[in-house]
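Input structure tokens:
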């Protein structure tokens, strides 16, 4: 039985549902946090070394590009945390059907963006 299947998938044409997008963003945010861990530990070390290195770190972190990177890492943490709570709720069977899964993915996206906005305003 021969089927006419495409040889190559057109990934840009596939419409991914929101729970699938949240899953991909959860993995991407975890990767970003993992890759940024040495940088975060280094900045933490400099902030605790002495008052001179702390003030120097403050002046470096005042640059808008570094603030934007810090805001992206903040979103990565908050999204990864909220999505992790969602996956725990799924594993504990609090989210049991497709409607709840879609609603919880919307909640994760909205809550992570709102928390990022408010903490970003405080930190900026």
């Amino acid at each position: 039985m021969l089927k006419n299947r495409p040889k190559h998938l057109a990934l840009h044409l596939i419409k991914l549902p929101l729970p699938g997008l949240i899953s991909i963003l959860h993995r991407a945010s975890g990767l970003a946090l993992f890759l940024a861990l040495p940088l975060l530990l280094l900045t933490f070390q400099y902030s605790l070394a002495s008052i001179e290195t702390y003030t120097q770190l403050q002046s470096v972190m005042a640059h808008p590009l570094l603030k934007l990177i810090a805001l992206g890492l903040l979103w990565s943490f908050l999204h990864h945390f909220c999505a992790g709570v969602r996956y725990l709720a799924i594993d504990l069977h609090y989210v049991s059907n497709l409607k709840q899964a879609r609603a919880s993915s919307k909640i994760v996206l909205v809550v992570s963006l709102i928390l990022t906005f408010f903490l970003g305003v405080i930190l900026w």
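Helices lie at 18-49, 51-60, 64-91, 98-123. The chain is about 75% helix and 0% strand.
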